[in-house]
Amino acid sequence: MQTYINDCLLWQDKRATGMFKSCPEDFVVEEGLDWDFKGQGEHLFLQIEKTNCNTAWVAKQLARFYKVPPRDVGYSGLKDRQAVTKQYFSIRLPGIKPGSYELPEHKEYRVIAHHLHDKKLKRGYHQYNDFTVRLRDVTGDHAVLQQRLAFICQHGCPNFFDSQRFGHNKHNLHRLSAWIKGDIEPRKRDEKGLLLSALRASVFNRQLAERVKKNSWQRVLTGDTVILDGSNSRFQIEKVDEIIRRRAVHKDIHPAGVLVGADSDFVGNSERLAILMRREHLQESYRSFRLNVRQLKWDCQGKDWLIRMRLPTGAYASGVIRQLFRLTGK
């Protein structure tokens, strides 16, 4: 099983080279949660800025601080560890009153805002993420880089799952293969979800790679399922007419690929895989082939390039950067 990441790149040649994530401050993420907080209710919302630590770890620290079960701490999305990120957490505290609670202090994260609300924060509830990414010691043709950034501004780019989904050195895919063969049996629900997510990502990237090869990742074809921009609403295209073409050009709709579930044709070749997916209640869904990159701005600062963008939930800023740069570490 493969990641197909390189096959989802628009340009294989003349990509610039840049140092990526040389320090946490080079990758800044702010979660967009445009809620009107009630100011009362049993859920304490904390907007937290964290540096070089992951979301799940912060959630455990908050559960320990407020002496609640881990299930009573909510967050919308997992944010990068090697980064500076701002995101919300909710903690269920029955009977809490305005001004009657303490705020945690920690060297690796800090509270920058707090509110009371009547609902828990659940996964996928935020609307977008804003990214500020610094590439250091950039080499390459600046004119080509500018042209490609302008292309992404106008047309978007392929919406592939990047390497984070597959684990370090594709560890999640290796574990998944062992699970399918029956060599291992993951016990924890979170790990099962992680491995099945890697499966879905691999199959999706393979579909997307075929569309990139045919230069149809951004075009709507007869028989396609399409997703409305900024929503999960979808419908199937029986015939591509001028209205559909125009909507696709204006990025109002995007062709979509399948995120496989227990009833997908893909799993028919493996009875054990089908059993695993049914047991884990994995439902088929869809993901846009095209990523609409909003508010894309860039600035050359000496040898560095600073790139800002707003992406919908589930999209990878590193995937956008990878379209433009060959990435190096420290």
Summarize the structure.
This protein is of the alpha+beta class and 330 residues long.
What do these coordinates show?
This protein is of the alpha+beta class. The chain has two domains: 6-20 and 133-291, TruD, insertion domain (Pseudouridine synthase, 2-Layer Sandwich), CATH 3.30.2340; 35-126, TruD, catalytic domain (Pseudouridine synthase). Helix content is 26%, strand content 29%. It has seven helices and 16 strands. The chain has helices spanning 55-66, 142-155, 171-181, 189-213, 242-249, 271-279, 317-324, and strands at 16-20, 27-32, 43-51, 73-75, 84-92, 109-117, 128-139, 157-158, 225-228, 234-236, 253-259, 285-288, 290-291, 294-301, 304-312, 325-328. Strands 1, 2, 3, 4, 5, 6, 7, 14, 15 and 16 form a ten-stranded mixed beta sheet that branches. The protein has a four-stranded antiparallel beta sheet with strand order 10-9-11-12. Strands 8-13 form a two-stranded antiparallel sheet. A hairpin with an 8-residue loop joins β4 and β5 (84-92). The two termini are 29 Å apart. The model has no long low-confidence stretch (mean pLDDT 93).
